[in-house]
Write a structure and sequence with these properties.
Shape: globular
Radius of gyration: 16 Å
Largest sheet: none
Number of strands: 0
Order of helices and strands: HHHHHHHHHH
Distance between the termini: 38 Å
Oligomer: single chain
Helix content: 40-55%
């Protein structure tokens, strides 16, 4: 997978810069109307949608296999588009934007670090037995700024791990495409906590 997503070419997406922006302004209809939501979501770049959803499903190794495979796996799920999916795009692009600004050198591994960081956040949520408040993210994406130190900490540890040579793999990019890599990342047990304010209830 390349970093072609990070070029300056125009693209259709719910969020181009999450910091201080409002996701719902990117929709021309109310998200509470399912039919209208689908209409708006159909305008989103399929690659961005697939990456965001699969990363949150804790399948970063699939995202790392490239756009074609990522979209194919996403389509095979035949899942209904939901409002939460829009929030997942916002979350993915927030993390992508933030990681782009971090000082450590991730030029060769940004497209790997982002989905693995998103997946790790999802992993933390699933282990909490709570539900992330996706509606809050859509209503006011700027709340994600509160996650800055957490995302920086997680992405730093993940970047160190995925950029370390792996025995049996001549090219690290191949290692990142295997579920074994994701299982190893989960075993890192990164010591951070998502604030309770991000959960429902």
């Amino acid at each position: 997978m390349t970093d072609s997503d990070t070029t300056n070419e125009p693209r259709q997406s719910i969020m181009m810069n999450v910091h201080g922006a409002h996701a719902k302004e990117k929709f021309s209809y109310r998200l509470t109307n399912n039919a209208m939501l689908k209409s708006e979501m159909n305008l989103v770049d399929k690659k961005i949608l697939a990456k965001s959803i699969l990363a949150w499903q804790q399948k970063p190794y699939v995202v790392c296999k490239g756009a074609a495979i990522c979209i194919s796996v996403f389509d095979s799920q035949k899942a209904e588009i939901s409002e939460n999916d829009a929030a997942k795009i916002v979350l993915y692009e927030y993390i992508e934007s933030l990681i782009s600004k971090i000082n450590f050198d991730i030029s060769a591994y940004k497209s790997i670090t982002v989905p693995y960081t998103v997946a790790y956040l999802s992993y933390m949520v699933s282990n909490s037995d709570k539900s992330l408040d996706f509606n809050q993210i859509l209503e006011n994406p700027s709340v994600l700024n509160q996650l800055d130190p957490i995302v920086k900490f997680i992405s730093n540890d993940i970047h160190k791990f995925i950029s370390t040579p792996k025995e049996g793999y001549e090219y690290l990019a191949q290692w990142h495409k295997h579920e074994e890599c994701w299982n190893a990342v989960k075993a890192l047990l990164i010591d951070v906590v998502i604030p309770d304010s991000f959960y429902v209830g």
